[in-house]
Amino acid sequence: MPITFSPPLADARDFPAPGLSMLPTRPGAAHGSARTAPRGAGAVVPMSLARHALAFIGTAVLGAGCRVWLPAYHCPALVEPFIWAGCDIDFYPLNADLTPELSALTDDHRDRPAACVLVRYFGLDCAVERSAGQLRAAGYTVIEDLAHAAHAPALFGDYGVTSLWKFYPVQDGAELLIASHLPDFDRLRAAARAWLLPPLRWQALHLKQRLGQKFGSRRPGNFRYLQEHRLRAPMSRRTAGELIRHDHGALAARRRANFRALSAALAGAEIGTPLFGELGESEVPYIFPLLLHDNDGFGQLRNAGIPLYRWEELAASGCAVSRRYRSRLVQLPCHQDLTAANMAFLINSCGGKART
């Protein structure tokens, strides 16, 4: 059955421009440090976008017809790569704390290969270690979506994908992680590197594509988020250069501090309640999730100039949590570039009270 996504609930053009940035914009310092690979990741292959890394996994590892279980709460950018790869997609439900409810798929892989994608929502743990162990023991290929968790300390699945532009002031950047425990690790690493076009070849192809788009010779793609003509693009040199100019530890500490400040200030907010109250010792957040008391809160915050993300375009499933969160779970910025004034603006607009 073809997968269709529910239409967006709101249009950004109906609201004033936000008063602060949703993502970091400030370049790194002149002297930074190298990023550290998660434990268990034997290979880290730079790519342009996380969805492109998922497309590689879908076609080069799983193959058409492989049954893939995805979480019912998602962005379409997680789903479209597996549609493109010809996988047979199902959705598993989630609990209110966004931990997976895996009873729907346990022992469901016996008739054909099967895989499951686990998500560290917003950079938080979401029981990934426990779930990955359970799934691998049952024979599933486990893929960790770390698009919100670029600083995850360990890889517990077979593959992982990060999304660096969510954490750094860059326009692209992702990493494909391949676990060192895989028996055909060397072949997979070589295949992933071969998937990417050499920079000069990509630049020539990209120029050709841009000219084709300008003069109408290139047809539009089949997906809203997955750009098929860019799947084999390498990470840009600009992104690679920006990554080595950052103090990654300081970035993580600042995000954690902002998350904790918002958690304390919004605990009794007029408009909603924090979905998570505490950060684990190794968790580095992407954003701050706030569960609104009612659907009207979204418009109230956007009209106040608060930038928000909300996952509105969901594939149909029987998950009650996803249906509820589609309209009421919003994502507030907590990135490292926020100033004290920015934080006060966020807290006041949500009806919270800053703690001293």
Q: And the CATH topology of the largest domain? A: Aspartate Aminotransferase, domain 2
Mean pLDDT: 91
Per CATH, the superfamily of the largest domain is Type I PLP-dependent aspartate aminotransferase-like (Major domain)
Shape: globular
Assigned CATH class of the largest domain: Alpha Beta
Q: Structural class from helices and strands?
A: alpha/beta
Distance between the termini: 54 Å
Number of domains: 2
Residue runs with pLDDT of under 50 for 5 or more positions: none
Strand content: 15-25%
Assembly state (oligomeric): single chain
Rg, nearest Å: 20 Å
The tally of beta strands, per DSSP, is 10
Task: Note the total helix count.
Answer: 10
Strand order of the largest sheet: 1-7-6-5-4-2-3
- Fraction in helix: 25-40%
Strand count, sense and barrel status of the largest sheet are: 7 strands, mixed
CATH architecture of the largest domain: 3-Layer(aba) Sandwich
